[in-house]
Amino acid sequence: MVLGHNELVPKRPRWPVAAGLVAGVALDALVGDPRRGHPVAAFGRAAAAFEARDYADSRRRGAAHAAACVLAVAAPAAALHRRTRGRPPWQAIAVATAVWAVTGARSLHFEAERACSSLLRRDLAAARAVLPSLCGRDPATLDSAGMARAVVESVAENTSDAVVAPLLWGAVAGIPGLVAYRAVNTLDAMVGYRSARYLRFGWAAARMDDVANWIPARVTAALTAACAPLVTRTSPVSVLNVVSRDGGRHPSPNAGRCEAAFAAALGVRLGGTNVYGGVTETRPDLGDGRVPEPEDIRRAVLLSRAVTVSATALAVLAVLAGDWRFYRRMKNPTTKTISATMATHHSRCSANPAPNRARMTSRARSKSNIVGLLQSLIGLQLPPEDLSNIWLRGIAPAGQHSSLHPCEGRCWSPGRVRTRARACWSPGCAGGCPGRA
Length: 437
What we know:
Blueprint lengths: L14 H16 L8 H16 L4 H26 L3 H15 L2 H16 L3 H7 L13 H48 L6 H4 L1 H10 L1 H18 L4 H11 L8 H12 L3 E7 L2 E8 L7 H38 L1 H19 L5 H22 L5 H8 L46
Antiparallel strand pairs: 1-2
């Protein structure tokens, strides 16, 4: 189909993507992650096997490893996305399956509540056994308050990583965005540490994760501030003030925003000394409240669920907003009116070029002035027609086709039709020049 001027290219509707996002979040909330055969776990095992053969203490090797792992899953996802376009039911099913696979709200909340129950029973051994499923810090040296702080920080950060970020990437890029983001985030969790082994090899994965989560982390902080009055009766303004003041103090450019928002909403103080793989990190305090207690974990889980619902609604609105703008433009009669007017104008100009003759004459005179200036500068005594031929790479002598019309050799490029404009610039051209064709 040949499209006319200003005619809109047909666009497939994106409502199946919105339906898939909602269905995927609901499926994750109802079913959760399988204990065996999870796609993300399979990707992690494959990436670990590839790392065992590809590892080298080099940033270049780490960048190649990260790129290969991401492309290995993004390419099939892009093929699936392309095959399901134009088939709304299948596209919705594919998006829902991808959302269920890459999000982990139910697992996050379940593990956090397990740790809370163990701490309330004062069973520190059970709580230490749960903590590795939430974060990578060493639980051996943590007391009850330290583990409560670790769980709250993990819930805050993973609300962005496991819920908000996948939904936003799915709203923007569909199935490829969902799968590629989860691959980047998983690689960061595997090799994005500052230990002796991964300081250089995991640098690329860590930077990719920082870029992928830059906007979602700030959206998470904003949604946390919006949900705080409903969950903890905290003012959104106070939450945003703490995020603005303390969010940048965190070593991570993204995690600090989420943790500062949760700390302000829950009225606690996060940050302190953490141990990751034998490496001790001291982080600044986030928030002005008290030390976290086990009961704060449940409040953090409730706040995370509210942010999950808000992020789902935001992603759906982002998808549908694009369709709404498109359909509104399709129904706007202004586009059709402009197209009809311009088509009439072009047809009139093609049928009767006389009104444009004055403009052609002006351009011809400008050309003559420029040619004369060039002659005076370089001292050449050449006819203007020959100089213009040289200038425009013309090779025919002046007036070669003057017999076709009474232009007397004053065409823009005598003997060579000016194909770009498809018109003769001679004031005396009566329409017989080949350039008029």
